[in-house]
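Archive maintenance. Older records in this collection stored only the sequence; we are now back-filling the structure field for every entry so that each record is complete. The fields below show one back-filled record exactly as it appears after the update. Entries are processed alphabetically, and Mitochondrial phosphate carrier protein is next in the queue.

ARCHIVE ENTRY
Title: Mitochondrial phosphate carrier protein
Organism field: Solanum stoloniferum
Length field: 353
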Amino acid sequence: MAFSDRKSLIPNYLYSTTSANSSKNLTTALDNHHGNMDKKNFLIAAPKEGSGYKVEMYTPAFYAASTIGGILSCGLTHTAVTPLDLVKCNMQIDPAKFKSISSGFGILLKEQGIRGLFRGWAPTFLGYSAQGACKYGFYEYFKKYYSDLAGAENAVKYKTLIYLAGSASAEVIADVALCPFEAVKVRVQTQPGFARGLSDGLPKFVKAEGAAGLYKGIVPLWGRQIPYTMMKFASFETIVEQLYKHAIPTPKDQCSNTTQLGVSFAGGYLAGILCAVVSHPADNLVSFLNNAKGATVGDAVNKLGLWGLCTRGLPLRIFMIGTLTGAQWGIYDSFKVFVGLPTTGGAAPPVQK
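Back-filled structure field:
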């Protein structure tokens, strides 16, 4: 068989290129058991010139990668800090019993053992994986969508508003995915004996309060998560831009992946601190309402007080959310780098050319 005949059996993309500058040469020897054959060179297609990435930006593959990155970043990190979240929720629900972080851990260890510190991990993992998928995937979509609506000049001029609008839009959808899991998680974590976890907790919850009860906390959840996410994304984008502008001596596109991921973690940690402060009152409300059947916002204010709503469990939440948010951006951008995409931030929002 002649080489030209064999070549017709190879898919075109294996030996074609979109750019001489971005293509790579791959030399292979094709054995011919009927006789000797010379080695031939063929090219593997590379991304479009100037992109330098395996996944093309703002394509379905890009949004799919963003969704997967969001699942990994939120699902894994929230599950890892389940013990901290468990103590925080109990401090919010029963401040008379759980007076501090250290005593809270001590009480839980004494009453429930080591395993008890991870109570509610299943609804945490599934709920925040679903939330992360929507949060990051839709944020990238809405950021591009609003930038295109604004146009090139306004996208740069009003970039912070675009970050805020994009993140808020994404979080509205993300919380619809999270809310049922969050309701079960809080009940499992704060009412010993209610259920072992998600598998028996979900049917018990629905039997007691109906399917609609799973969304009883959706409004305070939006009240907690939307400001949190707006702060998380807008402040992260701004902090990262400022770090590259004032603290990093090398332009972003010339920095190593390690440096860029370090900037992502630092920007995420600082953004997380701001997130914790802004969203903490609503976080107390979510825990209170999901713990007690028929409870109202007024009940929470009467029991905890306005100062208590703003400060009860805040130091622990600052540490937890700062670490959590830094790790989330680190994981998310690590996955983007893994699939050949750039890290987040450090540039104006994209617009349609």
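Update note: The chain has twelve helices and two strands. The CA atoms of residues 272 and 294 lie 32 Å apart.
Entry marked complete.
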